[in-house]
Amino acid sequence: MSLLTDPAAIAGLVAREVRTGSRDGAPTRIAVARRIYGTDQPDLWDALTDGERIPRWFLPISGELRVGGRYQIEGNAGGVVEACEEPSRFAVTWEMGPQISWLTVTLTPVGDGTQLELVHEAFVDPELWTQFGPGAVGVGWDLALMGLGLHLSSGEPVDPAAGLAFPTTPEGVAFVRAASSGWAEAAVADGDDPETAHAAAARTVSFYTTVPEDDQQS
């Protein structure tokens, strides 16, 4: 069963931006995603920060969800909570093995809903950036923001198995293709070569939508 009826339209709910920055004198690239959800700020904050609720749209999380505490997302990143300003902003380190990056989420009331702005800053290997561009991390966040939207609209948990399989379905491929193209355009707006950016986007689509050989044989 499909999670979406119009995947390109859902991907289009996210506004994407790429920035060039620096930390400790070293260059960084910054992926920014913004989406407005039809719920109030306290409810969106709760969905993002309650350890019992996060797995309903993302992944199980453990640790101490407080400033200075360490957290670990099951099968994914861990890190340290660096800031928490309920119900408007939190910041964490995003650590996978030896790699560290920085994530900041800001919530702002907008009309009858709430805008979520996600800012992910990382030191980027130039060769890796040329190969995949911002979509390598950006599409992953697009999928998470989609899951969040499904949870908020229904109040129910997103089926983990359906979420994991989604990128390889026809609807999932369309979603990933639209999201990756959006990240390529954002990279071009930040100064990347258009041909290189869109070639990277195509490789990102293949990365997210190709079924692993082990799964194909099972």
UniProtKB/TrEMBL annotation:
Signal sequence interval, chain numbering: none
CDD domains: SRPBCC_CalC_Aha1-like_6 (cd08899)
Superkingdom assignment: Bacteria
Domain Activator of Hsp90 ATPase homologue 1/2-like C-terminal: 43-148
Gene3D superfamilies: 3.30.530.20
Regions crossing the membrane: none
InterPro entries in the cross-refs: ASHA1/2-like_C, START-like_dom_sf
Pfam families membership: AHSA1 (PF08327)
Family designation: Belongs to the AHA1 family.
Protein's name according to its UniProt entry: Activator of HSP90 ATPase
The organism's taxonomic lineage, starting at the top: Bacteria, Bacillati, Actinomycetota, Actinomycetes, Mycobacteriales
